Amino acid sequence: MNRKVLYALVNLAFIVLMAVFAASNDTVPFIYLVALFALCSSALLVARPFNGPYSILCLLLFIFFVFYGLQDVSAVLNGKLFLTGGGLPTAPETVILVGGVLGVLGYLIAARLFRPTQQPTQQVRDWPENTVIIVGIALWALGSWAAWIWGVDLIKDTSSSTVSKALGSISAIKTTLLMLGQLAKPVGMLMLAYAQAVYKRAWLLPLLIAVVAFQMFYGYVVDVKGEAMTGIVLVVMTRMLVSAKLPKVWLGVGVLFVVLIFPVFMAHRMTSSQYGADHADTAKNIGKSISRALEASEQEEDSGKKKSESFFERASLKGSVTTIVNKAGDTVPFRNGYTLTPLWTAFIPRLIWPDKPFIAAGQLMNTDFHISIFRETYISSSHLGELYWNYGWLGVLVGMPIIGLILGTVGARANLADRISLTRLLIMIVTIRYVVWGFEGNIGVSYVMWVRSVAVIGVLHLFLTSQRRAEHSQDEVFPEAGHTRTVSVP
User: Fold this and answer.
1) 270 contacts: CB under 8 Å, gap ≥ 6
2) In the structure, what pLDDT confidence band is assigned to residue 118 with cuts at 50, 70 and 90?
């Protein structure tokens, strides 16, 4: 079916669905939801191939709708009332729509300007198979060890006082080494996922499953659902970017996590606080911890809707943006770039600047906007909300196009439809993980981690790749994926 026709039909169906519910509920934000869906579903116009120059844009638009529209759609379908009424978009909704449009425009401009041109040469730099597997296992093991020391032995809970105390108890050199070690873990997982997808060695599949299972265990222990899902997400993204197809089995595993395991993680957070169990206690008594979480989850589950609603509520960031837009510049002063400080201070080692400030932007938002009585509570602002929190409309009008330009440049230069290579995959995935998936968090943390990861990938590419004829092109590894071309950009 023609993409434009499909886009029109999908949007028409959404408009009719929302109109039916709006007819009996005049508080439905009809115009906002229709406009947001039209923006985010525009991914249908550029979605093929899945690993092409617009793959990052498609994922960003999907995430954008999950963050700012999915909970509202769920509420509409469940007949709930909205406080703002069903007229024109509110100020926060306008910020979301304008920010999304500007981000897309920035991406499209960069993708058009920086797409590499075709080159006749067949000589490229790529990683030897043995190097991919050996280095992947080593980096994952080293990174997991560093993450365990950091997240279980040192930072036993997520309070800022614990973090500050932990940082003060170890030397600046050890802090730097542990943080660098943690960067190695996702890179190692990606290498193993790439090796399994491209080389298809039978023994790599159970190894990859074990890696994903350990990551889920680690995420449960440190009480970070994003960590638990990292393994599944990285495997799904790797398979999709390499094969240009949706990995149905691994996607099914991800869905099962959201439906079945996500509520257990939610209950674990409550029970660990109730029993005063820190990360180390959870690791030592994992069986008892899971049993308590399962009991709490069963007690809270009143209906089959509970699990999905909990996920929608946790994923939604519209409330944070609404709070920021309604109060920043009025009852709460603009931060004027304060929360963005890590963008230029993070690259100064603590060895040189021992007293470098630690800015917990999520907790700062909580105290600024008086969201929770617990000062240690972390509130996600999202990149869009943080831009407005610092500079108001100026932050959105300037910041969102810059984000789009950055993502569009990476999407165009590193896309795997032109040629499959491990370096391209690594750059694409760390961009998706820290900037796209990390759009819910803080700009400083996301972009600092992204820059550091890309720098590490560059060093690895320089020393561990070799010059040879192009191998593992998409049409060779996955013949059904279609014709590809070879370019000289690594």
Assistant:
1) 296
2) low
